[in-house]
Design goal:
By secondary structure, the chain is of the alpha/beta class. The chain has a single domain, classed as UDP-N-acetylmuramoyl-L-alanine:D-glutamate ligase (3-Layer(aba) Sandwich), CATH 3.40.1190.20. Helix content is about 35%, strand content about 20%. It contains eight helices and nine strands. Strands 3-2-1-4-5-6 form a six-stranded mixed beta sheet. A three-stranded antiparallel beta sheet has the order 7-8-9. The protein is globular and about 45 Å long.
Length: about 270
């Protein structure tokens, strides 16, 4: 058997709960071999981010070429990319290696509230990286920030923002509702033909560090295994919901702890 391979291009989280580390855990939990390209280093823990060290663009390029020249990469997940130069290197690499399934999680603010991207990098996400993506996965605040609008409150507003994000050039958007209110956490999968509402019970826990990173990685894992987009998104949401529900069993750190990536293997 040949295992499917997925690649994460993102920032490293020294606490292991988000970023590259969460992506690789998710790939493994979902039955996919994970490779990585580190675009930035962060000094952080469950309480916050204390430092960011950017990886030079030429070394990002070297990592991309090393992976693609040896591995049959079936899907790519892109997370935190803090600089325009990094985004340009990634877009050039995706084009050079003709990557097909590209999931972009526009990580702009950490769970702790720390801002991770500069304004010019946010503009480069919109204009250069989104048109190269198969799916983008902003949460409600990120969708609003990307459009320069207020956070959507109603289903109609969320759908309208999704349509405006599609106009940036990506064929599909998943707006995540974890920052919303009410008994359900609802995500909206929007493309040119349909709007699919995906709801799950909202779980009362502060241990949600890495949720967005892991969801986008689980979607990329599904695509790497040959699933259609809707099936990959549904499977990823089920995986994340279970990982959040099991998060309090870990008791890691003193702030926003991580989700339980390997909940299915608990004994």
């Amino acid at each position: 058997m040949t295992i499917p391979i997925a690649l994460t291009i993102a920032g490293s989280d020294s606490s292991g709960g988000a970023g590259i580390q969460a992506d690789l855990k998710t790939f493994a939990a979902c039955g996919v071999y994970g490779a990585s390209v580190i675009a930035a280093l962060t000094a952080q823990n469950t309480r916050g981010v204390t430092g960011i060290h950017d990886v030079p663009a030429d070394f990002i390029t070297a990592q991309i070429d090393a992976v693609f020249s040896d591995f049959d990469v079936k899907a790519v997940k892109i997370g935190m990319v803090a600089r325009v130069e990094a985004i340009d290197a990634i877009v050039a690499g995706l084009d050079r290696w003709s990557s097909q399934h590209v999931v972009v999680d526009p990580v702009m603010v950490a769970t702790s509230g720390d801002r991770l991207l500069s304004p010019d990098a946010i503009d480069a996400l919109r204009t250069r990286l989104f048109p190269r993506a198969s799916l983008i996965t902003p949460n409600l605040p990120e969708a609003a920030a990307l459009l320069g609008e207020a956070i959507a409150e109603s289903d109609a507003d969320i759908e309208a923002q999704g349509r405006r994000l599609l106009a940036l050039g990506c064929p599909a958007v998943l707006i995540k509702g974890g920052h919303g209110h009410g008994p359900e956490s609802t995500d909206w999968l929007i493309d040119g033909a349909s709007v699919i509402r995906l709801a799950a019970p909202r779980i009362d826990t502060r241990n949600t560090h890495g949720t967005g990173c892991s969801l986008s990685s689980a979607i990329a894992a599904g695509l790497a295994k040959g699933q259609e987009l809707e099936a990959a998104v549904r499977a990823a949401k089920a995986y994340i919901s279970a990982a959040i529900a099991a998060a309090d069993r870990l008791n890691v750190g003193h702030g926003h702890g991580p989700i339980h990536h390997f909940h299915a293997f608990d004994t």
